[in-house]
Amino acid sequence: MDPLSTARLIYVAPAAGLSGVGDYADDLVATFAPHFASVTDYRIETEGAESVRDVVRHRRRVRDLVHAEARPTVVHFEQSSGSLSTFWASAVDLGQSAIVTATVHDPPHPVWWPLKTRGVARNRALHHAVHYPARALHTALQRRVMKGRTVFALTDTGARSIELPYPSTRTVAARIFVPERPTSPALSERPTAVGLFGHVYGGKGFDLVADLRRAIDPDIDIVVAGRGTASLPTVPGVRVLGEVNGADEDAFFASIRFLVVPYRKHGAYGPSYPASSTITRAFAYRTPVVCFTEGSLAETVRRGGAIGGDTVEELGAVVNAAVHDTVRLRELADAVDSVSREDALSRCAITFLDTWRSLLSHRAGLETARS
Length: 371
Known about the structure:
Helices cover 42% and strands 18% of the residues. The chain has 371 residues and is of the alpha/beta class. It has a six-stranded parallel β-sheet, with helices on both faces. A six-stranded parallel β-sheet has the order 9-8-7-10-13-14, sandwiched between helices. Strands 11-12 form a two-stranded antiparallel sheet.
């Protein structure tokens, strides 16, 4: 008998619409659900603006859900750099019978700023005063919470980055899935344009738009879309759409030949190695990527469907050389299609499901031996 069929899954993640992690969670938990006897999908609606009271409330609620039944239970947390409640809820004593796992979205750390409540976040100086000097202490705390647990990273690079600071944690390399989207026109049939897409915040590269405009030939349009982009400074020769969803998102990707991803993930707190949901969104529309060759993005370039560079000028040169090259566009489209099929949702879910099966079977074997 499949051990998942008699187990319950308690799935803890940010609410949809608040972050890319919450949006990612919607599709993934729906894929997990048919394999379990029951699923409790618990979402953190305060993600990104949490008070201490919110964190305590979510901790108690998750603990109560776990202890409500005695049957085999998997508790899975989606953890990212600023997700307080999903981290602190995982730090509660959830009992010996529950199997606790997590996806670490911003490796190597489950959470980078474990004290970044709404009040702390309002004051930039206070935020850094609270977190920067205490980095070693916060890592030690997370090492203690993660000891003996299994966590998932969404790239091979991310999984390797966790192993050094968290040697007592078992890390499984999974993949971030490519979602399903409507068919887009062939690359050579799209307008001669490139785009930037995503949620505007530090490290996403939106501050480099003016530099990219200078590096990319003037006959190639630049279109920018995503949450928060409407407030970006005006740059001549750059068209800003603001947030796009549904048919507007479909139209955005149908209007560009490349997505430019100028992410930098080496900040004052150290390098991070996240998988990019922006890239998987581009691949869903069979759109190749031009990106910096660093961190997990280097892995994306190696797998295919992306071209890398080390500077803005190199990204511009790549775009200028490839955007009119029909042979190169066809090669890139084929590579994107191959990766997208390999990283389809149903295939990516298998790594999680098989890992949970193994953990449940191992736990059942231990309990049988003790009895």
